[in-house]
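Example for tutorial group B:
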């Protein structure tokens, strides 16, 4: 399998250095200029390397989402930082290598060669593409992306890049995997933990969304008896808040 990289930056000088070196190393590359687009590409595709400009708003969230995705092995994350970038935030996001701007060919070449050792395809650990979809949780004017872990007609379980804010009702939207159908709903937070996992009950679901969700589940043979299980916390995890009586 050929190696590839996702470059997330608006800094043209940095991109020129990266593109030139990736070409020399015969690593395919794809560019995007926003964190939102990078999140979508990270979840719905697989990249062996993720090269993030941490001066770009939302870069830390992209790195954390990359760590949440199911593809194995996960991408090697390179953080591009400047003198004004809070480097601590980059390391907290789970980056593997730090590249200091302005990027120099020798510096980047050393890091890329080191990182390339972690990117070699292994037949025993080939990337696996599960049916994953992003759900966007609306907190005021800000939308937080999260990965849907489980889904039923009653609600969903999700993994967010950070703990959810302490609110109970959250507007949300997501595309049903493998379709062009958008589900729009309001989720009532049943439980949430410090790792960003949560279970939500659909307190409101548009008629069209309910119709598409029901058909999607039926085609995949989803069993009704699993509906409550989807909403319950995973065993062995510390839970911040639970409202199991809401399920009765």
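The residue assignment follows.
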């Amino acid at each position: 399998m050929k190696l590839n990289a996702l470059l997330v930056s608006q800094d043209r000088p940095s991109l020129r250095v990266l593109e030139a070196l990736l070409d020399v190393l015969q690593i395919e590359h794809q560019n995007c200029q926003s964190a939102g687009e990078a999140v979508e590409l990270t979840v719905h595709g697989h990249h062996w390397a993720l090269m993030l400009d941490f001066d770009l708003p939302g870069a830390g969230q992209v790195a954390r989402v990359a760590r949440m995705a199911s593809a194995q092995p996960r991408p090697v994350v390179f953080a591009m930082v400047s003198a004004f970038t809070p480097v601590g935030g980059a390391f907290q996001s789970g980056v593997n290598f730090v590249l200091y701007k302005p990027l120099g060919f020798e510096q980047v070449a050393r890091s890329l060669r080191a990182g390339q050792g972690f990117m070699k395809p292994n037949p025993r650990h080939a990337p696996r593409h599960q049916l994953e979809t992003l759900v966007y949780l609306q907190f005021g004017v800000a939308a937080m992306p999260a990965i849907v872990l489980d889904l039923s007609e009653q609600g969903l379980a999700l993994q967010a890049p950070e703990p959810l804010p302490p609110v109970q009702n959250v507007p949300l939207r997501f595309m049903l995997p493998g379709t062009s159908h958008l589900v729009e709903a309001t989720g009532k937070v049943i439980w949430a933990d410090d790792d960003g996992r949560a279970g939500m009950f659909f307190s409101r679901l548009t008629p069209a969304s309910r119709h598409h969700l029901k058909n999607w589940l039926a085609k995949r043979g989803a069993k009704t008896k699993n509906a409550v299980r989807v909403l319950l916390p995973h065993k062995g995890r510390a839970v911040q808040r639970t409202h199991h009586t809401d399920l009765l």
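The first strand starts at residue 4 and ends at 8. Compare this with the pattern of hydrophobic and polar residues in the output above.
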